[in-house]
Design a protein that fits this description.
The protein is 36% helix and 21% strand. It is an alpha+beta fold and 130 residues long. Strands 1-3-2 form a 3-stranded antiparallel β-sheet. Strands 4-5-6 form a 3-stranded antiparallel β-sheet, with no helix packed on it.
Length: 130
C-alpha cells in the first residue's frame, strides 16, 4: 500500500472533519503531524507544516473529487458582520502591523505569531475565517 498526502489542514479540527468525510465515503485515511501542530501552531502553513491527511494512492482521484465537491458547496463567502459578498483573501486589513511582525521575526530569527492569510470584507473591513 503506497500512501500519499491528500492535503494539509490548518488545525486538527479541520483535519478530523475531513477524515470523517473521507471515511464515510469508504476512503481509509490517517492524520500525520497532528500533535506537532498543537505544540507549534506558529509553524502551521510554513514549509508544509500542519496536519496532513494521508490516503492510499489508489483512492487519490476519488478523494480529490470529494474535496472539490465539498469546496464548491461552501465556495460562496459572506461577511458575518455586514452580509456582503465583496470578500477578499490575503493579509487582511491590518497589513502594516503584519509587515512589522514579519520584519521583527526576520531580525530575531524567531517566528512571532501566526501570520496566515485570512478572509476579509472589503466593505466593513472585518477579518474572519470560513
Amino acid at each position: 500500500m503506497n500512501t500519499t498526502r491528500l492535503t494539509t489542514c490548518n488545525n486538527a479540527i479541520e483535519a478530523n472533519l475531513l477524515k470523517g468525510m473521507l471515511e464515510n465515503n469508504g476512503i481509509a485515511c490517517f492524520l500525520a503531524n497532528e500533535n506537532f501542530s498543537h505544540l507549534m501552531p506558529h509553524f502551521n502553513g510554513m514549509m508544509g507544516a500542519g496536519v496532513q491527511v494521508i490516503i492510499d494512492e489508489a483512492d487519490l482521484e476519488q478523494a480529490k473529487a470529494l474535496l472539490l465537491a465539498q469546496s464548491e458547496a461552501v465556495n460562496e463567502l459572506v461577511c458575518p458582520n455586514c452580509g456582503s459578498v465583496n470578500v477578499g483573501y490575503g493579509l487582511g486589513t491590518n497589513k502594516i502591523k503584519k509587515f512589522f511582525t514579519i520584519l521583527l521575526s526576520l531580525a530575531t530569527g524567531m517566528p512571532f505569531g501566526n501570520l496566515k492569510n485570512t478572509n476579509y470584507c472589503r466593505d466593513c473591513k472585518t477579518e474572519f475565517t470560513k
